[in-house]
């Protein structure tokens, strides 16, 4: 994929994320995304063969960003697991109160596609939750927490 195509693809993903988050995955049309990016619907479909593929790409992009953000917020090299969890919750609180937060995009995707268990959005939400849980469990285990997996599951819930 050349640089221009890659840039167009990223612009599509960014615009789709904004629209999906604002109006919902199901209510956002491909036409609205194409208009927001300033491209034709045909061009959009050259990059993504379906809306489901675009939703999957948006959630994959958000997964990478959110996992990195969570890891940064937790500051796992701190003085113990209590401080790490305190840092994580303090950062979440700041984020949800200052960023016009409308809920987790992953949770919203899982809810919107609740009747479609195999939909890429549901699968992406499940993968994201599992990855966050696994990372947190490993970070807690590094601090010597005996039942780190269970604690991580409870925190992520």
How many structural domains are formed by the residues? 1
Mean model confidence by pLDDT? 91
Please name the CATH architecture: Orthogonal Bundle
Q: What is CATH's topology name?
A: Tetracycline Repressor, domain 2
Distance between the termini: 39 Å
How are helices and strands ordered from N to C? HHHHHHHH
Query: Helix/strand-derived class?
Result: mainly alpha
The level of helicity is over 70%
Question: How would the global form be characterised?
Answer: elongated
What ranges have pLDDT less than 50 throughout 5 or more consecutive residues? none
Q: Percent of residues in beta strands? A: under 5%
- What's the story with the biggest beta sheet? none
Verbal overview:
- The protein has 157 residues and is an all-alpha fold.
- The chain has one domain: Tetracycline Repressor, domain 2.
- It has eight helices and no strands.
- α1 (3-23) packs across α2 (30-37), α4 packs parallel to α7 (120-142) and α6 (105-112) packs antiparallel against α7 (120-142).
- The protein starts with a helix and ends with a helix.
Feature tags:
157 residues, Tetracycline Repressor, domain 2, mainly alpha
């Amino acid at each position: 994929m050349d640089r221009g195509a890659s840039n167009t693809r990223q612009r599509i993903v960014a615009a789709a994320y904004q629209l999906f988050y604002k109006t919902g995955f199901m209510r956002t049309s491909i036409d609205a995304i194409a208009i927001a990016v300033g491209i034709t619907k045909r061009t959009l479909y050259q990059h993504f063969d379906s809306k489901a593929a675009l939703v999957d790409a948006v959630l994959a992009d958000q997964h990478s960003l959110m996992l990195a953000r969570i890891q940064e917020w937790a500051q796992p090299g701190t003085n113990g697991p209590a401080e790490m969890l305190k840092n994580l919750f303090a950062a979440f609180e700041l984020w949800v109160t200052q960023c016009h937060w409308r809920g987790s995009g992953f949770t919203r995707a899982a809810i919107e596609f609740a009747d479609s268990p195999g939909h890429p959005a549901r699968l992406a939400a499940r993968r994201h939750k599992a990855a966050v849980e696994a990372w947190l469990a490993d970070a807690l285990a590094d601090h010597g927490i005996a039942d780190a997996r269970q604690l991580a599951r409870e925190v992520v819930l």
